[in-house]
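Data availability (excerpt). The following record was deposited with the supplementary files.
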Amino acid sequence: MTDKAAEPELNWDELRPQIIKMALELGPLVVFFIANARADIFVATACFMAAMTVSLVLTWLILKKIAVMPLVTGAVVLVFGGLTLWLQDDTFIKIKPTITNSLFAAVLLGGLLFRQSLLKYVFGDVYKLQPKGWSKLTLNWGLFFVVLAIINEVLWRNFSTDFWVAFKVWGVMPLTVLFSISQLSLLNKYAPPDEPKHVPPVVVET
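Predicted structure:
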């Protein structure tokens, strides 16, 4: 007779904050897409900045904390969005993803050079992994951020603003989710034996 108690189950206490976090991070992107479709990139940028601020406030009120990455991303959005509106030059908002992804990649990969898995400080309160697992996860996310930065540079330099906005909203998210799912086997391989089945972390680049 099969012992159902021995079967791994999803940790719903772990899953719920991830779903809320993803929804709050995706919201500003949807606002950005709609505003660009109905007006232009400058109106969309202003709406994006406002939605990002609301998202961070709601994150604090609902989850009682704001992770480092969304906080840094929010600050960069406000700075580069402000430059876009002030100078009426959409180049600033278009290079924002390149800046944030390159920054995250540099921090994560640079930390590995000093044998520091800095991703542990972001997800360490949610996941329990062996040191080798943290190193591999940090390396994978660092390289993924490099890929996202390169994709953004190719797109904004070679395609229309509308295409860039559409891909930023509807292309980057699926890529990020698929990449996150691909890390599930690593999370479970390097988790302590008594840990429940993990839900892969999703870091949304806004």
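Summary of structural features: The chain has one domain: 4-189.
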